[in-house]
Amino acid sequence: MKEINVGLIGFGTIGTGVVHIFQQNADVMEQRLGARLNLKKIADLDVITDRGVTLDPSILTTDANEILHDPEIDMVIELVGGYEPARTFVMEAISQGKHIITANKALLALHGDEILAASEEKGVSVMFEAAVAGGIPVISPIKENLCANRFRTVLGILNGTCNYILTRMSQEGDDFADVLKDAQEAGFAEADPTFDIEGVDTAHKLAILTSLCFGTKVDFDSIYTEGISRLSSLDLQFARQFGYEIKLLAIGKIGYGKVEARVHPTMIPISHPLAEVHGVFNAVRLLGDFVGPVMLHGQGAGMEPTASAVMGDVMSVARDILHGSPLRTPAMGCSQKNFEDLPVRPMEELISQYYLRFGALDRPGVLAQISGILGNHDISISSMIQPDRQIGGTVSIVIMTHEAPEANIRAALAEIDELEVMREKSLFIRIENDLG
């Protein structure tokens, strides 16, 4: 029976999950593949810590070059994370003719062009199902099952930490800081959660999804990115009063020769399927011109779901090796040579409804001042909530607008924030009613 050798660089949480699958499901994979997968070498700076798996010490090394320069290793699983040395490892593996499987969304978002160009030139595969939405199969359906469709939108709840925090804030009324602390203690959030709560992790994933769906390069730096740290539990309660949930949503759209690519807190109708995605779960919703709406929902992170996605890519590459057809499906669904060059729409051009919250002194005429400035910027009010009065104190004024250009919203709020009666910076949340 033919044997296909695999090298693993990065023996952390996901790497441990990969080893578990190699050990526990070897017979299943062999039966389905018709060949034997052999985990020949594992490289990590720490090969001493007990990961709860039993391994022959001879396959462990602290030198990644033992994998990169081993001519018998057919493919390399990169689970180091981050930009460097992951980029160096991947580029060297490609130069040595090895196929790549990675879960590294940050690497692909920033250095995908370089990596994919090198892989095409060398004739090797780069697979990254685990880089977006963990264990949920998203990349393969876009490249394979749905590839005859023109995609109009791609929407994603792509960060379990943020979704857990927003779910708790909405359902239990807890404050952001308290829920974040609980999430860290429960292992749902990192000690430094900045990439998660400020939307950076989600933007990395959206850069991949928009390029896949629309056949154009979307640079990470061109994606508008806003996190959830300014949200109050009051915002989620007010949203529910208006019939909405607030989610940190990745939004990709195409139309009129431009691409929209943005990540920000978004109010979505409470009846929409994405509003029902709670806790640490993720979801991706696609709209194709023939298939219509398709939603993929499941565990977006964690050792076992993510390792499952990694090994799915390993099996796919192994099948291509066995049949002599590497690069059967280009990494991004089509060769980068066939990508269209489409600009990303500036946020100032966005037309949307908006939720506005102001903190102002409770004085006569405050609402008239606010509404007057909004009117001067051609922003009309759809509805409003003003809680019980607190004479001499600070009150929240919540306004829902009709559709307006974002440039007008920003200009109006900058003017309102200069009013003497304002006691905190105004907050706005975009509303998406047409989600497909």
UniProtKB/TrEMBL annotation:
Where L-homoserine is bound, by residue?
E190
Spell out the catalytic residues.
K205 (proton donor)
Its UniProt pathway annotation is: Amino-acid biosynthesis; L-methionine biosynthesis via de novo pathway; L-homoserine from L-aspartate: step 3/3; Amino-acid biosynthesis; L-threonine biosynthesis; L-threonine from L-aspartate: step 3/5
Necessary cofactors: a metal cation
Q: Which UniProt keywords apply?
A: Amino-acid biosynthesis, Metal-binding, Methionine biosynthesis, NAD, NADP, Oxidoreductase, Threonine biosynthesis
Name one molecular function that GO assigns to this entry: NADP binding
The residues covered by the ACT domain are: 355-432
* Leading EC class: oxidoreductase
Q: Report which reactions are catalysed by this protein.
A: L-homoserine + NADP(+) = L-aspartate 4-semialdehyde + NADPH + H(+)
Give one Pfam family, short name only: NAD_binding_3
Name the residues that bind NADP(+): I9, G10, F11, G12, T13, I14, G15, T16
InterPro entries named in the record: ACT-like_dom_sf, ACT_dom, Asp/hSer_DH_NAD-bd, HDH, HDH_cat, HDH_CS, NAD(P)-bd_dom_sf
Q: What is its EC number?
A: 1.1.1.3
GO process annotations (BP): methionine biosynthetic process; threonine biosynthetic process
Q: Where does NADPH bind?
A: K105
Family according to the record: Belongs to the homoserine dehydrogenase family.
Q: What is this protein called in UniProt?
A: Homoserine dehydrogenase
The organism of origin for this protein: Geoalkalibacter subterraneus
Tell me the classification of the organism that encodes this protein: Bacteria, Pseudomonadati, Thermodesulfobacteriota, Desulfuromonadia, Desulfuromonadales
